[in-house]
Description:
- The chain is α+β, with helices and mostly antiparallel strands.
- The protein is built from three helices and five strands, in the order H-E-H-E-E-H-E-E.
- Strand 2 (40-45) and strand 3 form a beta hairpin.
- It starts with a helix and ends with a strand.
Amino acid sequence: xxxxxxxxxxxxxxxINGIVQGVGFRYFVIRKARSLxxxxxxxxxxxxxxxxxxxEGSPEALEKLIQALxxxxxxxxxxxxxxxxxxxxxxxRDFELRW
Length: 99
């Protein structure tokens, strides 16, 4: 059963850079991830000024989330989005804000 689950679920780590702090970006990500359903993980600000998103879910839902990350909320200026795909760990219960 675990093997079947890993084929249906994926993990993605996304680093977003630009004007993405102080514009509500993290809360935008939380709302989007929760609205897509079935996505677990976290979003947090980085000391570098970027935002990190680690999420697990269906490839389709994660692709929609990544598309949204390219836009961000009003006031954000997304300059780059780096995406790393991986296998899910199942270690998240919800999608949350981390500090």
